[in-house]
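Consider the following assembly input.
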Amino acid sequence: MSANAIDPPAGFTVGQYLICLRGIVWREALRFVHQRERFVSALVRPLVWLFIFAAGFRQILGVSIIPPYETYVLYEVYVTPGLIAMIQLFNGMQSSLSMVYDREMGNMRMLLVSPFPRWFLLVGKLLASTAVSILQVYAFLVIAWLWGIEPPAWGYLAVLPALALSGMMLGALGMLLSSAIRQLENFAGVMNFVIFPMFFASSALYPLWLVQQSSPVVYTICRLNPFTYAVELIRFALYLEIDWTSLAVVGGMTVLFTAGAILAYDPARGIIVRRGERGA
Amino acid sequence: MTADGLELARPPALTGIPALAVAGVSHSYGARKALDDVSLTVPQARFTALLGLNGAGKTTLFSLITRLYDTRQGSIQVLGYSVARDSSQALRRLGVVFQARTLDLDLSVMENLQYHAALHGIGWRDARQRALAALAEVELADRARDPGRKLSGGQMRRVEIARALLHRPSLLVLDEPTVGLDVTSKSSIVRHVRSLVRDRGVAVLWATHLLDEVVPDDAVVVLHKGRVVAAGDVADVVAAAGATDMHSAFVALTGADPARETA
């Protein structure tokens, strides 16, 4: 059929895509502003690690000269990139939690019945969540600087693309997980089976050579953990270097997780279809 | 024209094309068949009631019409646009009110409407104007800044209807919109939606199990255990069932009394 003059024109303009993207990011930002406790708790968690855990470990865990550091560094300097990645990991899972909540509350449906392509809507949501995580990271870096963690000044800028990429990877992982979580109550399982193993079995808290000395098996797990590469990507970027392996792994995993999430939310093939819904 | 002078476009009158055409649609959840060869049409500028008890398949049908699920068997068209093949064009012409509440309770009423407008590519200023006009129509203009959680159930429903109309759809589908509402809210919503059909020529598919929401001028589709067991004007369906009114026709067609089911 041919659409008449009052009908909407076929397709959307670039401007309309941008309006839609801005709307998704704006809503995420509003939710973030309305939930101040979320911002505070996102900061308190890594700060507790930095102020207490790192202070305690400084005396027993020396970090030798390993790239990108050019000298011996204090443990809190070593652990800072890991804590940055931790912020993004928790934010990714928080965003996954909010997607499950949105689905239970019905808000998710309004997003999914938008006439824009579903991949675009999901990527928009991912960008929004990443932007929020970057805000949290910079707030943390300011406090860390006051605590004496002082990477090169340009490092604050150089780390931005790394944060964008690692935030996308962890957000996409959260989105993929959200498609598989049936109810909000099941989210505790994500904490136990995803967040903690990913965080502890990585280079966030200890250099991999130390892990290798104590357990080759755990070392192998750390090497297979994409979170390790997010940590290293951030660590090197913060010190004005690029770790190409980490860049490749994080980039690849971002594409993989995003594709998986788009597939999972696809009305033709997705998990949401196979699972069915109540109230048919 | 609305109170603030915003022109509300009438939907296109495309001769011969139904607002919604569902043909041979089946859908299963694993081994359980929720819809079995369902066909129905919703004419333009007409109020069509989709009648069915809980579990009849109404929500599944809504999920397929709105493309939350993909139509694997059969076809669904909105004003001639296939929901499966040309979903963007179909969804642009469709306004939806789901059975579950879909307002973001943390955002204000205006923010909820602006978010929806953005999801349809409507710019900020235009969205605000449309939202104010739409809220005035449902008599909630004074609640625009209130967070969603401060509204009553009936007010939330009215905001959802206002939101569904922001992008000026030709077809409005509502899934059990009056469930859980008091009599006053219920009649206000029914009256408003009927005025959309009468004054603006919007086609409406109204899913319900409450027979008192159906009037003699309506078209009806009776869905029972995933199958369409009757469809047409109320008088035709009543006559075909050999009944005297819609209530007894529904009992004759489904073997169930909706009044008892509701109780």
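The first helix of chain A runs from residue 14 to 34. Ask yourself how this observation constrains the way the partners meet.
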